[in-house]
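> call design_seq(struct)
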């Protein structure tokens, strides 16, 4: 049986930007490109970006911004039941994010599974 397993979390993106807005927009675009690539490769089935906020302001004129971005990622897995799906889906999500160099991920909640 196929299950859709979803996980919501936050990641940090560090980059140089001229302002908070520019840095937030660039961070959002960077993560969106990463998730689009993962979806095109079949590593994830669906994704959504949420809010952004400045996690760390630059301490000097040429220092980067660190932006916190909320996201939700879904994968499709084959499993005997929802518990097995959650376990394998969470592993698949972790592997996809690690392979795409999405760093400093913290999850807001446990993964959820629903039959497809």
């Amino acid at each position: 049986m196929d299950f859709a397993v979803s996980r919501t979390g936050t990641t940090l993106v560090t980059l140089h930007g001229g302002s908070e807005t520019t840095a937030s927009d660039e961070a959002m675009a960077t993560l969106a490109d990463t998730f689009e690539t993962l979806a095109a490769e079949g590593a994830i089935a669906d994704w959504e970006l949420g809010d952004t906020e400045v996690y760390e302001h630059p301490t000097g004129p040429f220092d980067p911004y660190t932006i916190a971005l909320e996201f939700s990622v879904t994968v499709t897995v084959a499993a005997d039941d929802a518990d097995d799906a959650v376990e394998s889906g969470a592993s698949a999500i972790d592997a996809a994010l690690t392979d795409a160099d999405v760093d400093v991920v913290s999850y807001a909640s446990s993964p959820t599974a629903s039959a497809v």
